[in-house]
Amino acid sequence: PDAVTFVLYSGKTVSRSLPPSCATVDHSAHVLVQITDSSGRPHQQEQKISAHLELVSNPDSNSQPRVTSLPVIMVSLSEYEVSYMPVSRGKHTLSILVNGCHINGSPFTVTAYPNPRHLGEPVNYLPNLSGPFGIAFNKRNEVIVSELEGQRLSVFDNKRQKIRTIPLYKDSPHLTIFPKGVTTDDANNIYVTSEHKLQKYDSNGKLIKCIGAEGTKEGEFNSLRGITLHKNQVYVCDRNNDRLQVFDLDLNFVRTIGSLPMDKCEFKEPIDVKFDTGGNMYVTEIGNRKVQVRDASGHFIREFGQEGEQKLLRPSGLKVADK
């Protein structure tokens, strides 16, 4: 043939320009190879099509690369369907050949991701919680859970035994009623977000400081959500103000991220924030349905989650692995 093109599709969605770049473990994907002449007309002679999928790297094991031959179905003299289904997550190469020659772009790099519907059963659980919302771990290897409906913090040891409860009394103007985000520092102090307040407690639950009120000024909030610590600074997601606010460990205001007119990638309803070991921050946004990656100063690096099979619907909680 004079020219070889292809169409990548999944279900009823057709994309006529992108090579296969991602797939889902145990989920079938397809490539439609279209063969044309130099004028773009469908070729009318049967061709020999072969394809194989090779696992190049698997983060779950040190096994050797594995090559799997793929089925090819002739749809017509000018169209052939290649089907593949990764069985392991990781980097693969997808090779498609016509008469022994790779089509344009082959071999393709295909990254297989775990099926979000088959992430396994829980290996453990924490009992007797009332509306659990946020979770954190302190230096004692204790687990702190904020209970939205219970209006309290519950602390568990590493054997899932509840060792204390921190009630958040509604008759005190300084204490939150509905705790949401929670995190801890190196001294095991606890930081908690509620709708419009940010609190700091010692490890026994004694209130150290409470700041905030509903508003848009520095140190004011509108529906606080996620919280994290990075290099002795407290980062909070000020959801309905479409920004992050940063404080020191004494809850003194430091700066705002994401609400300046010069920011080309403003946040829209940020929900959670975490840092990787390189100091980059990851922010989930319900409003934009994506995850933004920025450096510690707030400068935009990249974003993901808006396209393809890994498209996010309402990204909320977030955890960044160390590796």
From TrEMBL:
Domain of life according to the entry: Eukaryota
CDD domains: NHL
Keywords of this entry: Repeat
UniProt entry tagged with the keyword Oxidoreductase: no
InterPro entries listed in its UniProt record: 6-blade_b-propeller_TolB-like, Filamin/ABP280_repeat-like, Ig-like_fold, Ig_E-set, NHL_repeat, TRIM-NHL_E3_ligases
Keyword field contains Repeat: yes
Mapped Filamin repeat ranges: 56-112
UniProt repeat feature NHL, residue ranges: 208-250
Pfam family, one: Filamin
An example molecular function term from Gene Ontology annotations: zinc ion binding
The protein, known as: E3 ubiquitin-protein ligase TRIM71
Native organism: Geodia barretti (Barrett's horny sponge)
